[in-house]
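#dry-run=false #mode=assembly
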Amino acid sequence: MQFGIFTVGDITADPTTGDAPTENARIKAMLTIAQKAEEVGLDVFATGEHHNPPFVPSSPTTLLGYIAAKTERIILSTATTLITTNDPVKIAEDFAMLQHIADGRVDLTLGRGNTGPVYPWFGRDIRDGIPLAMENYALLRRLWREDFVDWEGQFRTPLQGFVSTPRPLDGVPPFVWHGSIRSPEIAEQAAYYGDGFFSNHIFWPAAHTAKMVRYYRQRFEHYGHGTAAQAIVGLGGQVFLNKNSQVAKREFRPYFDNAPVYGHGPSLEEFTSQTPLTVGSPQEVIDRTLGFRDYVGDYQRQLWLMDHAGLPLKTVLTQLDILGEEVVPVLRAEFAKNRPADVPNGPTHESLRQAAQARQAPITAGPVERGDLDTIAAITPPAGAGQTGA
Amino acid sequence: MPTPAAAKRTLAVVSAGLSQPSSTRLLADKLAAAAVARLADEGFTTRVVTYELRDFAQDIVNNMLTGFASPRLEDMIEDVTAADGLVAVTPIFTTSYSGLFKMFFDVIDNRSLTDQPVLIGATAGTARHSLALDYTVRPMFTYLHAVVVPTAVFAASEDWGSGDGGRIDSRLATLPARIERAAGELASLVAGSDRSTRVRDPFELPAGFNPAG
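#status=ok
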């Protein structure tokens, strides 16, 4: 199981002081937070992608490239990469490049974005959101898997004999998660390819997440990638910690009450009871997080949103200390208990590389019905598979 | 006459009245009772579920801000959208439906009222506002692809003090006559509805959808 953080990259004034960081300060804070995530023992750092203020991360691979140089172990990811408005050729190139720079510590989560005008700004029509996600991803997959691509589609200039460079590290494309809150089409797409499904989880009731994940798992099995229990599931989460539960609530309340997403609406108590948000002691966060397994099954990746709504950098770093020291080690041990042996760990470059190698070996490879779907082997790690992030 | 199993219908009533007692709620109840009586004449037993939006005002605002419904609002929306027919009544404020009324229909899924038979009603101080039903409320339900019955019922304050001369006669067009005519129109559509027994699949993919693009 992999644990990590994801950032939206918002510039929000601290409601307790009125101070807002400059763009430069916010970007530098994100770099500091990512390095801190590795230092406290987390497995994943993921950044959002936005093209409008008050958000700063418009260029994720630039950000992640710097972090790659400054870290040794943490997986660099996105939450999310816009598959609708980015050119799939550029996604293929940027993330393969990042993969080489980071020695494979790269995966990405694809999403459709939540800002309508981004579509026309990038020459697209929001009503094509789902068709763009389908066509662009189908092309992205081919660019990473085929050396010479001849392609023609509805939305992009055709390609003849195009080679996307650099080729993926070790011939193994980055693992892809598909993120969605409410569109069954995206869960269907993730299941079809045997890719991961990442449920944002944090702004919606658990019952909704449970239904979406169950649907994805059933379809994953339907498409022949393994059992439903072997599907690759990631969840978002949102916590604020203090050893004293009441202090946690008192400290977080002004940030909650004024937060861009849910501020001035439901009370902290209502939102906590209706969504996965947990504000309290490490033990409360541990208990709540372990409860996610009750409605999504054994899963592979848990990411938390820790640095939004104007929380100052110093507070975020303290939060990460508590998360890394008091929460995640307990969660690792507890989630490992009673976890069926055939449920895969979170995918890493090493596990995908070994799976690809196993597929090459003529004796061990079983009949694979669909040559382009490579997760069948990836979900059954060979003996002695790397333990990175497990 | 329908068979007993097929003779059950559900009618949802949504009132955006604010005061207690409310003339908006009174009109909603009269419309519902008249429709239930017409359905009974045709052999249908009708379950009526009535909601005052005031009771859900905070939940509706929260849904607008967060994008999801609280559990109690979700249950209420399910009741309303799965009914065989809907009676929707709003006070007219500033020449239009009340903000609370509109906000409720803004937060529900805009496909969830497709094909639903709807009877619209409104209340206001004077009859000068009566056209608001046809230039604000009816277009909203048309946008939602609901089937709005031709007669919309408007009740001005003075309507509550005018009789029908001892007979229900649509030619007189008194409030009781308008209620009867509108309820009859709604009842015939509700009688033919199977909405309340439909199985709805929230994961149904659009026709022709292909995950491979």
